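Q: Mind making up any chain with structure tokens?
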Amino acid sequence: MFTGLVEGIGIVKDVRQKTDDMRLTVSPVFDMKDIKVGESIAVDGVCLTVTEVLKDRFSMDVSGETLLRSTLHNLRQGNEVNLERALLLTDRLGGHLVSGHVDGVGVILKKEKKERYFLIKIEINEQLSRYTIEKGSIAVDGISLTINRCEDRFFDVNIIPQTAKETIILRKKVGDMVNIETDMISKYVEKLILGKESTNRRNINTGIDFEMLLKRGFIK
């Protein structure tokens, strides 16, 4: 479990593509003491398990499923990534609950400089947008952000100077892909209310609306 508060940036040192998976080696450019084999680290928002630790770097295996759902298959030696270690139960939860299990990929449509921040518009498909609400939380490349505005196929977020300093989000260009993890609470609520119907992901119109709530007795 993570918070979406990125701790710092890492540099990809090695990418070893195998038949249907990948071995990724990253060197953090900030102090990450006592990394151990078996611990979880979010790389651009994707939860990975450390399999080897060297002096200034660590390696992780990336499964075929993770490669299909995220942008990690695009990584090359020298690329920068956002890094966050797993949440300690004694820590403050400054962002929101992030599992590191990416739901899919979005595309940056627009980057606009405002007075002291940037506005970024990101395109997503309707299967992901069903879980977005204005002022709700979303993780973009592992960064916990608040949604300003959302429609069927996009949402807007603000990037404040501190977020820009600690992450690589503003180094992304229009057209670049980013990892998206929607708020897990919304997915649990949908499944509890809809039951088996919520597992039919191909039917993007299946969702919670007034008619459904009335039919099931949630509204009198």
In short: The mean pLDDT is 89. The first strand starts at residue 8 and ends at 17.
